[in-house]
Structures are given as structure tokens and as C-alpha cells.
Design brief:
Ferritin, mainly alpha
Length: about 325
Amino acid sequence: MLEIPLSWITAVATCRSARGLQPHLQAALELEFGLVPVCLTALFSLRERSNEATRSLLYGLAMDRMLHVALIANILNATCSPPRFSPQKLARGYPLPLPHGATGVGLSLRKFSPDHFHGVLLASDQAPGRIPTKAAERRASTLGAFYRAIAAKFEEFGDLAFVGDPALQFVDAISYSERDLFRVSDAAAAVRALQLISGRRGVARKGTDDPEPVAPTRQPTAANEWPEALEFKPSAVINIVENSRAAMYAAGSPARALVDAFNAAYCDVVAALDATFNGRPERYEGAISNMYRLTSLARSIVAIEHRDGEFAAPSFEQA
């Protein structure tokens, strides 16, 4: 389980303004974004036209992470704290250090396996049947508890904290419903967004720290039963390099050329998202276009044998 230092919760609780929450929300944005390549790499490792239920789940998890990123960005913009999508932070390669000193589940690029992805679900507080650690029992060191602490502060600050430019709010009516991705203009909308992200119905009332859990809005139903309920064929998993890096492949080789092209396109996606969430929504179309290109490049990369039955993989690092 991903464990959040108690100092995070304390720091959030002592914030006196919405601006003070900015570094915490930015760290959450980077963590949520960092989970996207983890999901996509596992998806790319599944041979096409195989393990369809698992493929659907992995795609849904990646979409959920991007939904969380968009909602956090809307909260930041609503409180006059621009979200930052920097290749230096978001395209550093893997294994990815967890932000803000978080510990527990590490973020690595691996081929799909039930055990690995149960860990990913634990990292996002979305796996059923968790065995609570002492920290989790204190309800102060999970990602969900962190989000709920921020939501409680927004309830305390009220609507006066939301003075950002409404034109910076982002929606994507094609990929997400209005129920899931919405504009944030007041405390109620911010709390609703954080509840959706954390998978909880509400923050704790005074005198109790026991909010009622609910399933995340866009989480596929199968995820609540995963992995046992999903049919899975290990033989249809490509044995890709773990935590691939461009430097692993010889300069001038087909694998290196494709990995370099993938990384250039990935950095373009990050830059386009930064522009999209900071006043240039017309750049979003370019981000989507490059996302489709990433899929095509990834399929070509994982078809190249690197060494002794191990195949190349994307590295999601700065070109």
C-alpha cells in the first residue's frame, strides 16, 4: 500500500489559505499522472486480441488517472495556482520516485501480472480486501485520507477561496461525462472532485474520521473483483524489459529509434497538456493525436526482441 507521511496530513491541516494547498495538490497531480505510464506499459505488454477483459480494465485505470489529473488541475486553476506539467518532472523515466516522501508501492514499468497490478490498485486505494497496516488504521497515511484532508480544508475556506479565471476550467465531453469531469468554481465542486478522486462519499464530520466508502465513479465494475474474477492467459503477455530506458538500446538500432520517437511524442503530450490546462485549450487536440501515436509506436517497440526472449519497451522519459 502507498503510505503517505503523517506530515502531509499535518501540513494540510495547518494551511491557512487555498494557496498553501498548492504544493500538495501539485504533488497529487504528479502522482496520478505517474500512474498512467504504469497502466499503459502493462496494457502494451498484452498481445492484441487477447485478455480483453484485462485490457479493458487497464485502459479504464489509465482513463481514471487522467480524469483525476484533470480534476486536480481544475481545482488548482480555480484557486489561482496554475498546474504544472513539466517533462523534467513527468518524463524522468522509471522507477519513478514517489512525490512528497511517500513510501510503499513503487511506480515501475513492467509487463502485466496480477500481483503487480494488485499493487497498483493498492497504491490508488482502489483494491478491495486490503490488510490495514498500523498507519492505515490511523486513517492518516493513505492517499484517500490525504485527499479527504484537502477536501475538509476547502469546506473550511469556503467559496471565497475560488477566485481563479473560469476560462481556465477544462472539460472533455468526448472522453468523460459531465458527472465525472466538471468545472470547479466553488468549495462544493472542489469537495465533490476530491470525493470522486478518493472514492469516498464525503469527508468526515467533526468528531469522527470514518467517512463512508463508495466505488470510484469511473472505476470498471470488474476492478472491484480483480484479479480473481477476470480470465487471464499468461501466455499472451509479452516479456518486455522492466523499467526500460533509451540507453539500454544501441544507438542507431531499430529499438532505439522507436523508443526515441516514442519519448519525443510523450514529451509533446506533456507539453500540450501543460498548455491545455494553462489557457490554451486548443492544444488538447494535439495531445490526443500524439496519444494515438504513442500506442502505434509502443506496439512496434514491444515487437522487437531485445535479448534472450526479452522484448523492448517504451521508457516514458525526456527525449
